[in-house]
Amino acid sequence: MNKIEHIGIAVADLKAAGDLYEKLLNTPVYKIEEVATEGVKTAFLQSGPNKVELLEASNPDSPIAKFIAKKGEGIHHIAFEVDDINAEMARLKNEGFILLSDEPKRGADNKLVCFVHPKSAGGVLVELCQSIAQENL
Asked: Hey, which of 17, 26, 29, 83 would disulfide with 11, CB 3.0 to 4.6 Å?
């Protein structure tokens, strides 16, 4: 794993949260994107080398809707950048971690992603992120 790629924060209202974090971080939302397959609408902010992803449920059955119903708004996951997501998934699986998918999925912000189950990661939902090469888009 190379570095923390971003911190994901579950929010009930993306617009209101975007306004709040723009003021807090003194930087604008640079991208809003929907990931229909995950039932989520995202907004990204960058402060120096650090990124924050705000996540709003786009349907009531999405993982974000369920998270907010159970735990309320707040930190949802921490994402780590990797060079080879398939190799990292295999390594973690061999180390005994439980992955939430067998193959990486297309996520927001031009990334391939895979999540590690919080039950196998000390209660923290961990996301692996690999940038998708521009020629593969």
From this structure: 17
Q: What is the pTM of this model?
A: 0.91
As a whole number of angstroms, the distance between CA 131 and CA 83 comes to 8
Which residues lie below 8 Å from residue 18, measured CB to CB, with a gap of 6+? 29, 32, 43, 45, 54
Q: What is the pLDDT along the chain (137 residues), one digit of tens a residue?
A: 899 999 999 999 999 999 999 999 999 999 999 999 899 999 999 999 999 999 999 999 999 999 999 999 999 999 999 999 999 999 999 999 999 999 999 999 999 999 999 999 999 999 999 999 754 44
Q: Can you give the length of the chain in residues?
A: 137
Q: Is 131:111 a contact under the CB 8 Å cutoff? A: yes
